[in-house]
Amino acid sequence: MYAKNLYFVGIQSTYQVVEFVLYNNNFPLEMRSIKKVDASATLVPSLSELLKTHDLMVNNLSFIAVNQGPAPFTTLRVVIASVNGISFETDIVLIGIDGLEALLEEHFNFHLLPTVALLDAFSNDVYYGVQAENKSILKGCRPISVFLQELDNLYPMKQIRFLGNGVSLHEKEIRTIFGKRAILQEPVVATCSVKQVAQMGLQRWHASRGLSNYVLPIYLKKQWLQTKNI
Q1: What order of strands is seen across the sheet that includes strand 61-67?
Q2: Mind listing the pLDDT tens digit for each residue in 62-85?
Q3: Yes or no: is domain 7-99+192-223 CATH 2.40.110.10?
């Protein structure tokens, strides 16, 4: 049996805003967002204000789930530093969530594999996550032209579904290489949702997996292809 009240918060930085949502067990109570340029000054006060609205304080939370990236690195560092500071002061549990894994899990469809998540890494680079039939995820960062050629070599003649904000940025290159084999997610899905971050955090809380008092940002910009089974 789960606790009658299990309050927790999910937080993530997108490419435009920082989002946070308050849950009680599986039920979202309220979601808010702030401009990413204001995150360093207003994230912690805004979170406290949200909790106060529901007659809660940070020490009433069981954990905070936070998107560790990849994401725009300056805002990501602010969010990670903020939650690490909260945990240092209150000893609250933190659960880090990989943003590429969250995006792929949220939109998983067994009949549309392989699926590729593309997030903008700027300067014509992309963060990518490739999910195939065996559910393993290939992740890394590449120039878009290099990555698409590698992907075509990896899955010749196969249809491939693409999602993430990198798709609209590089649609021309995708269609040039894959033509009708490219399935572009509609409506456009830019990033995972903050609710997905929270729900993955809840799953890991119940499984006692990935619990910590300190999280690090995921930064794939200088990493080569890596494989991770989930």
Answers
A1: 27-35, 17-24, 7-13, 61-67, 93-97, 211-212
A2: 999 999 999 999 999 999 999 999
A3: no
